[in-house]
From TrEMBL:
Example GO biological process: cobalamin biosynthetic process
UniProt keyword terms in alphabetical order: Cobalamin biosynthesis, Glycosyltransferase, Transferase
Active site: E305 (proton acceptor)
Gene3D superfamilies noted in UniProt: 1.10.1610.10, 3.40.50.10210
Reaction catalysis annotation: 5,6-dimethylbenzimidazole + nicotinate beta-D-ribonucleotide = alpha-ribazole 5'-phosphate + nicotinate + H(+)
Pathway this chain belongs to: Nucleoside biosynthesis; alpha-ribazole biosynthesis; alpha-ribazole from 5,6-dimethylbenzimidazole: step 1/2
Record's protein name: Nicotinate-nucleotide--dimethylbenzimidazole phosphoribosyltransferase
């Protein structure tokens, strides 16, 4: 197991040496699926989910026993440009709500039987205004990445990452534009619910941010220049999960934008991830398409916090319960087809 990284060059080196799923476990799980008391393919995508999970966990009869939800929070200097319907103070207020168990994600994590952790990253020190220059220095982005890396519990076997940060849909839109091109308006949505004038202003800010950081083309540099501390922390946790062969369910637009920076740096870096859902934020479906991720759920969510990812935990848990708990034809005394 790698012990971590102290520079972006170290991180890039880790990304070039990623563990793969266990092919033997995947094949054994496929063979088991063929013997279960059901017609072939009758459980649809649940069967694919079970094989994917078993391969990453190295167990042909795996179950989810220690799911974890981690919510990272950060503040963004770009909020000064009027891109949000809420002030930056709301970030800290919502962190207190998470810690008190009062947010939507707390309720959903409880239903999923998941451990939930909250990490606030320097809320009193917003990132730089991305419309005029980089969000973070290398030291700052490394610190945030390491927070995410260290937040994954050693026994976690399914991970969802959530975020809270007023202004972070602006950051996510800028990342998507820098990585995949197009027009700023194609990636920019209403976020916290800005009006038409606010959406136009936000779109212009996204375009200016990418122009102001035009030298950032590598995924890790895009994350440093256009991301936020909570986005970097999510990326660090995704990488740590890969090193541990822990499957990850991506949440919404912001989490997916953070993940996309890893994929741009090293194709295949997100093979251990699935899209938990597609959100109502307009850039999310476009971003998932670019990444080749077919979402498990589409419920019109746009809350963030990890809520869509946690709902998808139930789908994965159900897939493994069927795969690992069902009887085979021979065990059940049922004649196979």
């Amino acid at each position: 197991m790698h012990t971590g990284f102290s520079t972006l060059a170290d991180l890039a080196a880790l990304l070039r040496d990623l563990p793969a799923p266990d092919a033997a476990a995947h094949e054994a799980a496929r063979e088991r699926d063929a013997q279960l008391t059901k017609p072939p393919g009758a459980l649809g995508r649940l069967e694919d989910l079970a094989l994917w999970y078993c391969g990453w966990r190295g167990d042909a009869r795996a179950r989810v026993s220690a799911p974890q939800v981690i919510v990272f929070a950060g503040n963004h200097g770009v909020v000064a440009q009027g891109v949000s319907a809420f002030p930056a103070e709301v970030t800290a207020q919502m962190v207190a709500n998470f810690e008190a168990g009062g947010a939507a994600v707390n309720q959903l994590a409880r239903v999923a039987g998941a451990r939930m952790d909250v990490h606030a990253l320097d809320l009193d020190r917003p990132t730089g205004d991305i419309s005029t220059g980089p969000a973070m220095t290398e030291a700052e982005v490394i610190a945030a990445l390491r927070t995410g890396w260290e937040a994954v519990a050693p026994d976690t076997d399914l991970l969802v990452l959530g975020e809270m940060g007023i202004g972070n849909t602006t950051s996510a839109a800028a990342i998507a534009l820098a990585l995949f091109g197009g027009a700023a308006g194609e990636w920019t949505g209403r976020g916290t619910g800005v009006d038409e004038a606010g959406l136009d202003r936000k779109t212009q800010v996204v375009a200016r941010a990418v122009a102001a950081n035009a030298g950032a083309t590598d995924g890790l540099e895009v994350l440093r220049c256009l991301g936020g501390r909570e986005l970097a922390a999510m990326a660090g946790a995704i990488l740590r999960a890969r090193m541990m062969r822990v499957p990850v369910l991506l949440d919404g637009f912001i989490c997916t934008a953070a993940a996309a920076c890893l994929e741009r740096t090293q194709p295949g870096a997100l093979d251990h991830t699935l899209a938990g859902h597609v959100s109502a934020e307009p850039g999310h479906a476009r971003l998932l398409e670019r990444l080749g991720k077919d979402p498990l759920l589409s419920l019109g969510l746009r809350l963030g916090e990890g809520t869509g990812g946690v709902l998808a935990m139930g789908v994965v848990q159900s897939a493994l319960a069927c795969h690992s708990g069902m009887a085979t034809f021979s065990e059940a005394g049922v004649a196979g087809g």
